[in-house]
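User: Can you help me understand a structure? I only have the sequence.
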Amino acid sequence: MIFGGTREKETIMTKRVRFFCLFFVISLSHSPFVFSDQIVIDSEDQYRFAQAALDKGEHLRAIAEFERFVHFFPQDEKVPEARYRIGLCYIMAKDHDSGRRVLEDVYMEYSSAPAGGKALFLIGESYYEEGLIEEAERYFKKVVEAYPHLELKNWALYRLGWNWMKQDKWGEASETFMKVKEESPLYAHSRDLSGISLKGEALPRKNPTTAGILSGILPGLGHVYCDRYKDGTVALLLNGLTIWASLEAFDKDLDVLGGALMFLELGWYTGTIYSAVNSAHKYNRKVRNDFRRNLPDRINLGLFSAMDGSTGVALKIDF
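Assistant: Let's start by predicting it. Here is the structure, written out as tokens:
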């Protein structure tokens, strides 16, 4: 009887536990606070969220959010623009190769849409930012050929003008700036640059051959010619002292020491000539870089992320 009573109590307890569990599950399924709330984000919200990350400079996060937009809303009309901005984010994050791969795909798939044209232009701009002038030139020329009736052509011509200036081709730069159409917001500034660029032809220049010959005649004279007076003085003293020391050694019948010093002097002498030639190149490069640096550039990579996707590339025009 004792064991029977215990089993009966256990059976009742088991039923109560089962009933309580069933009641708990049913209550949860009807609770307005558990499992019922869902966050629903439409395409506009997702696109704005991705753009906000881009605006904050969070480029890798923006890439992920634009890719999420493309994945969940593949039929949305903003997909081409979102894919373009993925490439832009890579480039702004200094991953130019990944950015160009994305932009190449965008151009191939949407060449007739604004996003395709912008992608082609931005590929050229990425090469320009890296200093790969010849590659940049190739893409800017493709923009001019592929989009002759769009504002993109004017932007490509403007950048080609800068490309020519980077190569010290001042006449070509002036002619290219003149091709920017009057209706473009870049027109006035392009006209100014067309005239200013020609001043590059009159910039002072040091002839590397002359610098080398002068240093061959008198060590250090080539440096003085390049306005590097301190280097010229050091070169003259170093070469002079070495020659004097070698002559003194020969005069005292220290032929081995004299020969060693003359061999050393040959190295100093050759190095001085090479240094003078290099100084002339550095002088010319600095003068031209300083000239270009003082000219305002109206196209800025940081402005390519503007929200408006209809016109091509965001520009900051200062007057």
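Now, to help you interpret it: The radius of gyration is 36 Å. The first helix runs from residue 2 to 30. Let me know which part you'd like to focus on.
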